[in-house]
Specification:
The chain has helices at about 5-15, 25-40, 60-70, 85-95, 110-125, 155-165, 190-200, 215-225, 230-245, 255-275, and strands spanning about 1-5, 20-25, 45-50, 75-85, 100, 130-135, 170-175, 205, 225-230. It has an eight-stranded parallel β-barrel with strand order 2-3-4-5-6-7-8-9, surrounded by ten helices. Helix 4 links the parallel strand 4 and strand 5 (about 100). By secondary structure, it is of the alpha/beta class.
Length: about 280
């Protein structure tokens, strides 16, 4: 069933478990996520991000994600992640996404607050939930890499003000996490997570989940993280599945898709168990 993330994350926060959000830029990725969630009776979030739209537009992504979410036997929130532009978020709303992240984290604080508050007013009027970001989660490589990530960590006192004034449903935090492949084991600021959770009272979001340890996830969830974003692990699993099929002599897509799907489903199942959302649908 297609839902927004509000009740889903509220239940996760209260129950002490996390919900996985998985970017799905192909039907095979979407199948891996939703079929595994159904098999494990887990709520789940699925969607795309603005940086991924050159691969597949919001409209084309919605054509398979929205019907699949509606037909699912478990709650599925279809989320537009890291919406960097107002226009992109509006297109996601037009296409039926049930949740959006309006990422204005690179703007100054006043502009971030004003922009996200406006998005919240629009989305809430449509029954759509909103995630904001405070501080800034950079990348492990490339143009988004931060030289001194700790300079951009989320300030708990400012987070309290931001949540109160914007009305966001969830808050992405920068606490030592980063997007993409980690070259070295990350060191999350768990005390910062705890304090932000206590001050804001809303579900927190951990971006850059691929590559974190099981203990990292468990501790973060226990301290207030209710949504964890996964893409790199899922993407790499799909490739590994295809490579396995090729090694076994499969030479066309119809023969390779089952390998790809099986490998990705294994990753989704691992994350669902790790986050503790199995059996919570």
């Amino acid at each position: 069933m297609l839902v927004n993330m509000s009740a889903m994350l509220a239940a996760a926060k209260k129950g002490g478990y996390g919900i996985g959000f998985f970017n799905a830029v192909s039907i095979e990725m979407a199948r891996a996520v939703i079929e595994t969630a159904e098999e494990m009776h887990s709520p789940v979030m699925i969607g795309t991000a603005e940086v991924l739209t050159p691969l597949l537009s919001i409209e084309r992504t919605a054509e398979y994600l929205i019907p699949m979410a509606r037909k699912a036997s478990v709650p599925v929130a279809v989320h537009y992640d890291h919406g960097l532009t107002f226009e992109g978020c509006m297109e996601a709303l037009k296409q039926g996404f049930s949740s959006v992240m309006y990422d204005c984290s690179t703007k100054d604080y006043a502009s971030n607050l004003e922009s996200v508050a406006e998005m919240v007013r629009i989305c809430h009027a449509m029954g759509v939930t909103v995630e904001g970001e405070l501080g800034h989660v950079g990348d492990n490589a490339g143009a988004g890499r931060l030289e001194n990530p700790s300079d951009f960590y989320t300030d708990p006192d400012i987070a309290e003000d931001f949540v109160r004034k914007t009305g966001v449903d969830a808050l992405a935090v920068a606490v030592g996490n980063a997007h993409g492949d980690y070259k070295f084991p990350p060191k999350l600021d768990f005390d910062r997570i705890r304090v932000i959770s206590e001050k804001t009272g809303i579900p927190l979001v951990l971006h850059g989940g691929s590559g974190l340890s099981a203990d990292d996830f468990r501790t973060a969830v226990r301290l207030g993280v209710s949504k964890i974003n996964i893409f790199t692990d899922l993407d790499k699993a799909g490739r590994a599945g295809i490579e396995e099929g090729l090694r076994e002599g499969r030479n066309c897509m119809t023969e390779l898709i089952p390998y790809e799907l099986s490998a990705m489903k294994a990753v989704v199942a691992e994350k669902i168990r790790l986050f503790g959302s199995d059996g919570k649908a």
